[in-house]
């Protein structure tokens, strides 16, 4: 009985060549002995390999479609020579979408590589965010080795071409399979893809071309920065391997909460608590802002919850380009303090004031011109 090669690969009889290849690739990853050492998995791997050999050949596939078995005279799939014998799973994957058929070599990679960025956090008060500040920062990063100046070689020596890969940075192996000649390329294990070796490394950096050092730099933080913002110091990060160009250093701002002001972007908010007599009579109150004292004028009859605006007394607006674009505003929220305790004389004066104002009786407010409104009406409305 002819074997069901389509069933072995899990594809339909009308599957395209690409679908057959993808199915085999998926099963090869799952069943290859390098991944799955189980004996049953190895047998299945031989079966799917044989099925792929048949279905990838148009002549053999035609025999299968006519009900025959092109491998019937050559023994079962289990007795066939494994066409990928001696190949690792990586070799099989390379055969499909790696360096195959003598394609262009990748070539050695440069010993000189760019460095990575570094990050340091600093705490700033709201006052420092308002004015900007210059800080001396101590950073510990990789710098160019001052002995070999980044070459990684001892004095008087130079790198030499790797004998293993001949300077290509990779080694190739050629094996034959049912796909034809398969050329696989791997990173050279001796030079690690560089194409050259350092026979006499620098004693200070060990051939890396860089060493770690602690240094002090000045960071200028512009006015208007906020919590979480980062200031970039170009070229002040880590020096790359082989003395490559340094990355950047990012200074991240951690803003300390203020005891008086709450920040919302470039705007500031604060709460001013005043006695009820001040709210009723009005006053001019000195108010300390980030830019110095100002006089805040309260009109007579100022109500609780009143919001007063002081334009331009917020923080500088910092644009994405780093330039300033005006200033924010300061919002003063008024809270009126009601005395919790009164002595006899104070209570007597308040009763007299209430009598003069005709406030002895308490009535419910009206809402939209209808009697019976006020707080109780609103509570009943919520209950509906």
Strand content: 25-35%
- Looking at how many chains there are and whether they match, the oligomeric state comes to single chain
CATH architecture classification of the largest domain: Ribbon
The H/E string reads HHHHHEHEEEEEEEEEEHEEEEEEHH
What is the CATH topology descriptor of the largest domain? Chaperone, DNAj Protein, Chain A
Distance between the termini: 80 Å
User: How many individual β-strands?
Assistant: 17
CATH class of the largest domain: Mainly Beta
Q: What's the total helix number?
A: 9
Average pLDDT for all residues? 82
- How many separate structural domains? 3
Order the strands across the largest sheet as they lie in space: 10-11-17-14
Q: Radius of gyration over alpha carbons?
A: 40 Å
- SS-based structural class? alpha+beta
| Sheet with most strands | 4 strands, mixed
Indicate the percent of residues in helices: 10-25%
Protein described:
The chain is α+β, with helices and mostly antiparallel strands and 384 residues long. The protein has 3 domains: 5-97, DnaJ domain (Helix Hairpins), CATH 1.10.287.110; 118-255, Heat shock protein DnaJ, cysteine-rich domain (Chaperone, DNAj Protein, Chain A), CATH 2.10.230; 262-338, Urease metallochaperone UreE, N-terminal domain (HSP40/DNAj peptide-binding domain, Sandwich). Helices cover 23% and strands 28% of the residues. The chain is built from 9 helices and 17 strands. The protein has a 4-stranded mixed beta sheet. A 3-stranded mixed beta sheet has the order 1-9-8. A hairpin with a 2-residue loop joins strand 12 (283-289) and strand 13.
């Amino acid at each position: 009985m002819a074997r069901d090669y389509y069933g072995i690969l899990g594809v339909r009889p009308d599957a395209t060549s690409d679908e057959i290849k993808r199915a085999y690739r998926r099963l090869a990853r799952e069943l290859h002995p390098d991944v799955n050492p189980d004996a049953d998995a190895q047998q299945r791997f031989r079966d799917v390999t044989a099925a792929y050999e048949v279905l990838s050949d148009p002549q053999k596939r035609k025999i299968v479609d006519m009900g025959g078995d092109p491998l019937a005279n050559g023994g079962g799939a289990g007795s066939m020579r494994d066409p990928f014998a001696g190949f690792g799973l990586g070799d099989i994957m390379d055969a499909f979408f790696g360096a195959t058929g003598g394609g262009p070599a990748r070539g050695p990679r440069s010993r000189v590589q760019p460095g990575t960025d570094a990050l340091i956090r600093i705490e700033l008060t709201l006052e420092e965010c308002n004015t900007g500040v210059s800080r001396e920062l101590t950073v510990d990063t990789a710098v160019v080795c001052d002995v070999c100046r980044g070459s990684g070689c001892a004095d008087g020596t130079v790198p030499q071409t790797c004998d293993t890969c001949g300077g290509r940075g990779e080694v190739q192996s050629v094996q034959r399979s049912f796909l034809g000649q398969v050329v696989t390329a791997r990173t050279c294990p001796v030079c690690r893809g560089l194409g050259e070796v350092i026979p006499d490394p620098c004693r200070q950096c060990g051939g890396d071309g860089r060493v770690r050092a602690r240094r002090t730099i000045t960071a200028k933080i512009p006015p208007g920065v906020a919590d979480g913002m980062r200031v970039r110091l170009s070229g002040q990060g880590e020096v790359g391997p082989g003395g490559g160009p340094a990355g950047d250093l990012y200074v991240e701002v951690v803003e300390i909460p203020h005891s008086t002001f709450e920040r919302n972007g470039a705007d500031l908010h604060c709460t001013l608590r005043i006695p009820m007599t001040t709210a009723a009579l009005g006053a001019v109150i000195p108010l300390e802002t980030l830019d110095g004292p100002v006089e805040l004028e309260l009109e007579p009859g100022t109500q609780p919850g009143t919001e007063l605006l002081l334009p331009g007394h917020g923080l500088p607006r910092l644009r994405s380009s780093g330039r300033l674009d005006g200033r924010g505003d300061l919002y003063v929220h008024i809270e009126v303090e009601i005395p919790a305790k009164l002595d006899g004389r104070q209570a007597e004066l308040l009763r007299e004031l209430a009598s003069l104002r005709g406030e002895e009786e308490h009535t419910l407010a009206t809402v939209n011109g209808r009697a019976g409104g006020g707080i109780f009406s609103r509570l009943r409305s919520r209950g509906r």
